[in-house]
Specification:
36% helix; alpha+beta; 323 residues
Amino acid sequence: MGGKQSVLVLGGGPDSEREVSIKSARFIAQALTASGTFAGVRNETIDKVTGDHLKALPGDVIFPALHGGWGEGGPLQDLLEADGRPFVGCRAQAARHAMDKIATKFTAVTLGIPTPACRVLDVRDEACPLAFPVIIKPVHEGSTVGLFVCTTAGEWARAVGTIREEARRGASGYPGRVSMIEACASRPGGKKARELTVGIIDGEPLPVIEITPAEGLYDYEAKYTRNDTRYVVAPNLPGEVTKTIQAQTAALAQAMGVRHLARADFMLDGDGPGATAWFLEINTIPGFTDHSLVPMAARHAGMDMPVLCGRLVEMAVRDHGRV
């Protein structure tokens, strides 16, 4: 492509993270406009689109900022591949793989990356198949949507009852939603494990960020609406933990065919040299809001939002046509 390109930023979608996606798209479009690099930037809010609808939207390069199963997990990427224009992010096969938390865990295991034990939830089971505490979460969702923490049999029963009832009513993405049970990592003495995340841009890891919610989990509210979550960029971690999880994130992305950008989440089970960081999941279209972690880590590495978003568009053009 010669000369300046125009960029079509897509936000919205039909998934539960629609509002976050719209906000991410707005920040991306503002950053691309501020860069002064492109012929034009169009921010389009969509639901589910057809191939014909997508082709009718103007732009030389597409930057999808959709989060969730449809927008991040393959269906939109199928349309983007058929559309034929360069686009930011994974191709469809890698997107489907990364959206499947259990399949991603299998890949992590083959690479020797520690990941907590898990099971597929069967709501007919009266007893939890793993020792408490556990987390129940959907296999194909993000942003802690549909997540339950169970530390006792009573909490387990209530969580499974809620999931069973939602499936019966066809609510919140059911009946197609599949949930998994995952063991919780913790520090000695039952202390909560340290939450860590690693962004990656074009195969290169960004600085690690440690996340400390004001209370409880780093849930949807802590991520996107509250202002009391504490973030530490490049925290002091024991031993070789920083280098290890950065290398693991890069290796996992490469093995799965994840391109351009991603963010992997870990839980650290101690503060001493013997601590292990347990891999949880990888996100192929991480958030780009003012609370989001990849832009935060990129700023620490010297890339502000206009530079970061501009680089991602350049990668899309560079990789267009590559398998």
